[in-house]
Amino acid sequence: MRLIIFDIDGTLLDSKAIILAAHAATYAQHGLPTPSEAAIMGLVGMSLPEIFRILAGPDDPAESLMTGYQQAVWEFRATGLHAERPFPGAIELVDRLGVTPGVKLALATGKGRRGTDRVIAQYGWQNILSSSQSADENPSKPDPTMLNRAMAIAGATPAETVMIGDAVFDMQMAVSAGVTPIGVAWGHQPTEALIAAGAVAVATDMADLAKLIDTALIDQRLPR
């Protein structure tokens, strides 16, 4: 048996536009300068309290900024502005793995529960996931709790588990949990940083990721 765990933002879904727009909207609402794109995107994958604790200056209202960000995201979703779109081939890959014998799937995401459940419902994944671990019920990445809980629910060992993500935090979390870390090159952080954080391989596109996963289903090790 293999447990394949996916991150969402930057791995399965291209959410960059809505993330940047929501930050811009809430910082403008508070009369504060918006952090740089690099600063914002470099933290994607962590939980929102951690992100705003890091981004906010000593005198900035981090909790109010977080609330404003959440409101902006849901307003954009309601109107269809800055829509989060799946990367080409992402949904097809998850759907194929969902019916592959001997494979269990899970999500481990910095999204809150509401946003995570929205993604699951939108793509009809309710019956193919053994669990979904969100930032609302777990410590922020790179703490390994998300992966430990996902493995416990699936009945998988670290040697049977693969974590796929686009962020350094995903790779660090995987290393801490003793599972195989695979990075993706189309997300929010550079390949070099993912490898330095422990990725055994970094997929260049979705077809490459599918090949790496197929290798992981057969072998215990992946080439660097």
Descriptive keywords:
224 residues; alpha/beta; Rossmann fold; DNA polymerase, domain 1; 2 domains; six-stranded parallel beta sheet; two-stranded antiparallel ribbon; 10 helices
How many individual domains? 2
How many β-strand stretches?
8
Task: Name the shape in a single word.
Answer: globular
Head-to-tail CA distance between termini: 23 Å
Along the chain, the helix and strand elements come as EEHHHHEHEHEHEHEHEH
* Tally of helical runs: 10
The CATH homologous superfamily of the largest domain is named HAD superfamily/HAD-like
Task: Please tell me about this protein's structure.
By secondary structure, this protein is α/β, with parallel strands linked by helices. The chain folds into two domains: 2-14 and 85-218, HAD superfamily/HAD-like (Rossmann fold, 3-Layer(aba) Sandwich), CATH 3.40.50; 16-79, DNA polymerase, domain 1. 46% of the residues lie in helices and 15% in strands. It is built from ten helices and eight strands. The chain has helices at 16-29, 37-41, 48-55, 62-79, 90-98, 113-122, 145-154, 168-177, 191-196, 206-218; strands spanning 2-6, 13-14, 85-86, 103-108, 129-133, 161-165, 180-184, 201-203. The chain has a six-stranded parallel sheet, with helices on both faces. Strand 4 (103-108), helix 6 and strand 5 form a beta-alpha-beta unit. Helix 1 (16-29) crosses helix 4 and helix 3 crosses helix 4 (62-79). The longest helix has 18 residues, at 62-79. The radius of gyration is 17 Å and the shape is globular.
